[in-house]
Design goal:
NADH-dep_flavin_reductase; 12 strands; Flavin_Rdtase-like_dom; mainly beta; 7-stranded antiparallel β-sheet; about 40% strand; riboflavin reductase (NADPH) activity; about 190 residues; oxidoreductase; FMN binding
């Protein structure tokens, strides 16, 4: 076919109609930032027992049977080896009230991210933060390098949840879902 065809309604304008071939990292970061994501903190224990954690927004459900989740961290992360080699980790979906905690765990310059936090240690030895909307304790199923990130797959072994509105990351900033209320559990 020699001509472009317009099908369906107007979704806004792309210039040119088929988009851009600008795949520079800063361009992609800006474009991908238009997709709102949840904000979570992942925690584990290093081999010496010290707690390790970082903020992520690359978290997704992978499978319900078996229960698998996926997240990623950049290859140059100081915590990469600890997470790659750990037996278990916990993913904490943060409520909107925990923006400062998300910033703390996202900042590599903060030496003791766990200072003055009330932690619980799971039977698997994973530090768990209080106040998360959802916490998933996972066995480290496997990991794989993909581009400039390490993909981590966790098999969920225990869960907890509390009512709350999740913290969201959109267009390079933290925000929340203003129209969302904690929905009742239909399975209770």
């Amino acid at each position: 076919m020699d001509e472009d065809r317009h099908v369906g309604g107007n979704l806004g304008s792309l210039s040119p109609p088929w988009g851009s071939d600008d795949l520079a990292p800063h361009t992609l970061r800006k474009l991908l930032g238009s997709y709102p994501t949840g904000v979570a903190i992942v925690t584990t224990s290093a081999s010496d027992g010290r707690p390790v954690g970082l903020t992520i927004n690359s978290f997704a459900s992978l499978s319900l049977d078996p229960p698998l989740v996926l997240w990623s961290l950049v290859n140059h992360s100081p915590s990469l080896a600890v997470f790659r080699d750990c037996a278990h980790f916990a993913i904490h979906v943060l409520p909107r009230e925990h923006e400062e905690l998300a910033r703390r765990f996202a900042n590599p310059a903060v030496v003791d991210k766990f200072a003055e936090l009330d932690l619980h240690i799971t039977p698997e030895g994973v530090p768990v933060l209080h106040g998360a909307v959802t916490t998933l304790v996972c066995a480290n199923d496997h990991s794989r390098h993909a581009g400039d990130h390490l993909l981590m797959v966790g098999r969920v072994v225990r869960t907890s949840s509390t009512p709350g509105v999740p913290l969201v990351f959109h267009a390079g900033r933290f925000t929340s879902l203003h129209a969302v209320q904690a929905a009742p559990d239909k399975h209770s």
